Amino acid sequence: MKGKFKLTILILFYLGGFATVAEPAEQLKKADSLFMAKKYTSAFDLYASAYSDGQASPAMLLKMAFIKEGLGDDTQALYYLNKYYSVTADRAVLTKMQELANENQLSGYEVEDRHFFLNALTKYHLVIQLTLVAIILLLTVVIIRSKPKGELPIGVPVIQILLLAVLLTVSNKWLLPKQAIITEATFLMSAPSAASEPIGHVQNGHLVEIIGRTEAWTCIKWEGKDVYVRHAKLRTL
Prior knowledge:
The protein is α+β, with helices and mostly antiparallel strands. The protein is built from nine helices and seven strands.
């Protein structure tokens, strides 16, 4: 375990803040106790088990990133920071990920307003959907009551149609591109076959966009081109 951790004060602040969230599982309580006692590797094993069981919380994801960075495994640290960001839309974490990426000369972590907006939209999509549905229903009532009197303002149906379009857009999960982290150094292939021509070699840690999948290969976007890597070389976010 390295003595020096590189997570910023801001990350530590969030870690402390989320630590107050109730985590009733005994396994997580034990993991938290180990973490507080600085028995990080033992704590991580328990957190990893809980993560596999779908018990991840923002606090736990930050702790896992903290531990992995302390162990010098920046690839896994970036993975858990990405997962944390996907559930919190915390822009400060984007900056932290970019810092780690720059230190390791990794691509795919550039801070873009479009990705921040789409991630925030994904995080709050249920609240946004319920609000839009309530407004649309209210406008429907207005339309129904106004029709017999002939007093319906022309703008009401137009607003309702626009809101329906926004609702359909928000409801689509494809808004945010599917991404993965390269977890092992690998060759980039021109086609989904080991016999195809290799067109490059990359180190682990890069964040890439997934284009599609075949039986054993994943098509990713790399420097503007569609290339292929084996599934086992990636960890999907």
